[in-house]
Every structure is written in C-alpha cells, then in structure tokens.
Design goal:
This protein is α+β, with helices and mostly antiparallel strands. It has one domain: Glutaredoxin (3-Layer(aba) Sandwich). It is built from five helices and nine strands. The strands form two sheets. It has a seven-stranded mixed β-sheet. Strand 8 and strand 9 form a beta hairpin. It starts with 12 loop residues before the first strand and ends with a helix. The mean pLDDT is about 90. InterPro entries: PRX5-like, Redoxin, Thioredoxin-like_sf, Thioredoxin_domain. One of its GO terms (cellular component) is cytoplasm. It comes from Paralcaligenes ureilyticus.
Amino acid sequence: MTIKVGDRVPDATLTEFIETETAGCTLGPNSFKVADLTKGKTIALCAVPGAFTPTCSNQHLPGYLELSDKLKAKGVDEVWCVSVNDPFVMGAWGRDQGVNGRVRMLADGSAEWVRKLGLDLDLSGRGLGVRSRRFSAILKDGVVKHLNLEEGTALKVSDAATLLGQL
C-alpha cells in the first residue's frame, strides 16, 4: 500500500553521516528514528533514486539547496534528502554538493522506510537494486500534508519549487 496525504509516516531508522561531533551526535554515521525526527516539526522531504546519479545531482537536490531558506521562511523546520544509499555515500554526496547543513542527507540503506511507505522502486534490471521512487512531501508532526509522486525516474512534480508553492 502506498502512503497518501493524511497518513502518518511509518517509523523506521534513517542514518546520517555527521561531519562535526556535537553533544548527542558522534562523528560518522548516526541512526535516528523517523518518529523522533518528525515529532513536532514540519519537514520538506525529497526522496531520490540514488546519490551521485545525473538527475538527482544536477537537478533535484540542487533545487532544494537553492530554495532551502525560502522553504524554512514558510515554516519548514528541516529539509531532508532521503536515498537508498549508505550513510557514507550520502555524506560524501552532501560534501560534493556543498550541502553545509541546509539539507539533512539521510540514508535508508536497506530501503526499510521506502518499502514501508510503499514507494520503493526496483531498478534491478539496470543493476541498481531496490531504490526509492522519486517524490517530495511535506510532513507535519509525522503526517503527510502534501505528496508529489513521480512516474519512473522523471523529475516533473517533486522539485523544490513545486513543494515551496504548496506551503
């Protein structure tokens, strides 16, 4: 079953590569429960099929980086980019893209969360295994308020400008 507007997102563990050690977060991969991360927050979420892939690196993530301040000015607490990659890859991709804390680069390494969302995409035929469908969403306190699902790997409705316009 695919998640829809009005549904609460399922809980799962996402992992983030932390570049600078802080109280409560050690340097390197740190695991977080989605339920904890979304509690009391408004999240602008983009999910992509893969780090370092052409559309994701050249268009999708850069749009969220460019509009992160505008999204936050409209009440978004955090901007997330989720992909079925390991946290080391997501950390390296974030460094490569110059994320600098504007977007949380969250790894769903085994596709646990995207499967629970019903938004997994089997790209085994292309040698890429199970990935996430490309989508964007606004989550308020863990509930889906807006959801923009792409067909295949297209980028037509899940871009940052579309999500900004929905706020």
